[in-house]
Amino acid sequence: MTNINLSQPTITLRQPDDMHLHLRDGDVMRSVLPASTRVFRRAVIMPNLAPPITTIDQAKAYKKSILSEITKDINFLPLVTAYLTDDISSDELKKGFEEQVFFAAKLYPANATTNSSSGVRDIRNLYSVFEMMEQIGLPLLIHGEVTDSDVDIFDREAVFIEKYLQPLLKDFPLLKVVLEHITTQNAVQFVESSEYNLGATITPHHLHINRNAMFHGGFRSDFYCLPVAKREQHRVSLRRAATSGKSCFFLGTDSAPHLRDAKESACGCAGIFNAFNAIESYAQVFEEENALEKLEAFASEFGARFYGLPLNNDFITLEKRRCKVPDRIPLVGSFSEKEFIVPFHAGEYLNWSLVNTQT
Length: 359
Ligand code: NCD
Ligand code: ZN
What we know:
The protein is α/β, with parallel strands linked by helices. The chain is 31% helix and 18% strand. The protein has helices at 26-37, 56-67, 90-98, 127-136, 156-171, 185-192, 204-208, 232-242, 260-263, 278-288, 295-307; strands spanning 3-5, 10-14, 17-21, 42-45, 77-83, 104-107, 140-142, 177-179, 198-202, 249-251, 315-324, 329-330, 340-341, 349-358. The protein starts with a strand and ends with a strand.
């Protein structure tokens, strides 16, 4: 249970896991990885690289490249996922899962988000793959948005749930499914009342901002991500869900770094880099909702239990100390000084700071 010391405000909790993380590769990965490894013990790593991770060899090489950047004093386990395409090999997926290379498989509807052009065009093409996944227990992670141009961008999650998720769960009642980065009251209600093996991740940014953030005094691409932030009523609903103590809702940051130039362009990329202070950002939400005692279960237990992973043995401590978030995160490697990443909460103060990792 979360240990809260009120005389000298600190919270100690079991080391958390990030159940949805974009690390990228190469020098960007090298630049952003320490933000995650300083606090998380494990992370489910998204496969939307260019080219996407669709084979066992690619997944092995990617995992190796991540691990090669981590110093020996840090315990961090990347849980690598496969990227589903219309013609993905069912045998390759099965073998990859059995060899513990693929932790899960990710479904991006084609062109729904960053690097999803090779994603799934027709979900029905994958029905035999889902059958296999259901049989062997390979979890299906879903970017739950339709892409039809006649569906309003703010309705895309709700329409996906009705049109695709509901029938999918009916057809594969034993399939383990995670609806990733939920953004609507519709998703909250659907997940919490589901009789199936369905969980959902919730990001820090969708708990902090509503869609106004993107248009405050002008267009602000720093707050543009997919699924896009919705109206205030949805943010309120997500905050209730995250702090409800319901085990179907768990931590997944969807931290998605993009260089400044790629965000701030005529066609700015979707994605918010929140790993730099993700746990502090979540802690602030739980404090505001008077639910700090529920943070540990959300961050460190529900996700692990959903996936059948053992709980982590180590603990982290946060203390109530205001901390200013930098305006920009420098990059290592082959970048010029003009290139950087803007973190979520840039220039703001957060109330909690990470103290240490205890063993
Ligand atoms: C993600 C990215 O940049 O890879 N972007 C985002 O806005 N969340 C992809 C995704 O998870 O949709
Ligand atoms: Zn994502």
